[in-house]
Amino acid sequence: MNHTTADPLPQSPADASRNLPRDEDLRGPLEDMLAQAKAGGADQAEAALSASRALSVGVRARERESIEYEGDRSASITVYCGQRSGSASTTDLSRAGLAAALEQALTIARFTEPDAYAGLADVDRMARDWPELSLWHPWALTPRDAEALALEVEAAALDHDARIAQTEGATVSTQDSIEVYGNSHGFIGIERSSRHAISCTVIARNDAAMQRESAFSQARRSACLDLARDIGQRAATRALDRLGARRVPTTIAPVLFSPRMARSLWGHLFAAISGGSLYRNASFLKDRIDTTIAATGVTLRQFPHRAQALGSAGFDGDGVATTDRTLVEDGVLRGYLLSAYSARRLGLATTGNAGGVFNVDVEPGRHDFDELVASMPRGLVVTELMGQGVNLVNGDYSRGAAGWWVENGELAYPVENATIAGNLGDMYAGIAGLGNDVELQSALRTPSVLIDRMTVAGD
């Protein structure tokens, strides 16, 4: 439901969305679905029921632009009849709606081709106990309070410098959700969570050009969000820093990824060691366990049980227990990211990563950002990436970039319309330095990453 600036302002999210259901409101129907699946001829079954509510308020030009309420409920069911499987989903959580979805899944299973790898994860891998993760912290935020906070963020940006000509808006949002997953092994897992965010995008302008930049903060608890003033000023500073940007000559040079941009580097690594890419022979890192894939000193570890973290979970999408893991140790690949299905396809065991990774830390280095810059005779600092030119089959990498050109160990001028290219295998092996400037408001905590050489294309 949307409200424009001409609409009366609701006083509470309760005016437009209902509270989340209780645990038993979802657990009971889920258990019924699983029992009915068995009665309907399924050897195994798994199901998930979820509900969420959200409020988002946006402002622009010092006025309220939108209020959005979002309420969502959904259910999914997968049945396994021998080696045949069928899945269905619905947004109708009534008894009749769930029964219809189950019947559809059973019908699909009767007509699908057998798959020897289909089925639930082994019963002994089910999560039985996990610590309290403290993921649910509802924010008692009224639309009026959200509007005032968004206006404060935008004002901090607009008032920071006369060259901040306008914004593309500031937004304050909050979301609460509950999900219940269960399967015919008897596993039932319930997770309640919240996520809050504040963001701002601004445009800086001078006589020659204009530049756009943004800043945001996100957390499970509203008290852990950055101050509104700091977010607005950070967006303004980033945009101002880009004024006067120019193109660079095409060359081969070191490239330093800021923490925001370094996350994408590791995201490509996770995609390359994920089961789907591996069993499809679509990864340059297949069959590389216990071999060196990155420079000495590069270590990545998973911590799924970190309290209040954005990527925490007690169990994965198969109901398998999540665990602390070392993915890369001192440059050596120690493990893949496997679900039960992809593990069977590869002849391996699930790693409890159905759905992806859970809170990964990249071990920081000893040098701060300025010291890494000072170590570059010349090169590019990347603060923005564009495009998706990454081929996981062979590791080829090419993306648009913007940032700062470095000369003699100092930031010389801002850069736009550049392209950086290389190969992910060479890039990971060529990591020449890791900073100590880790950003904590992310499920992937990484410092800046310095690659020793890449092709930088400009003029």
CATH top level label of the largest domain: Alpha Beta
Please, what is the CATH homologous superfamily of the largest domain?
PmbA/TldD superfamily
Annotated CATH architecture of the largest domain: 2-Layer Sandwich
CATH topology of the largest domain: PmbA/TldD fold
Query: What is the CA-atom radius of gyration, in angstroms?
Result: 25 Å
- The number of domains is 2
The total count of strands amounts to 18
Mean pLDDT: 94
Largest sheet: 7 strands, antiparallel
Structure classification:
alpha+beta
* Low-confidence runs of at least 5 consecutive residues: 1-8, 10-17
- Structure annotation, total helices: 9
- Report helical residue fraction: 10-25%
Series of H and E elements: EHEEEHHEEEHEHHEEEHEHEEEHEEE
Coarse shape = globular
Provide the β-strand percentage band: 35-45%
Alpha-carbon distance between the two ends: 48 Å
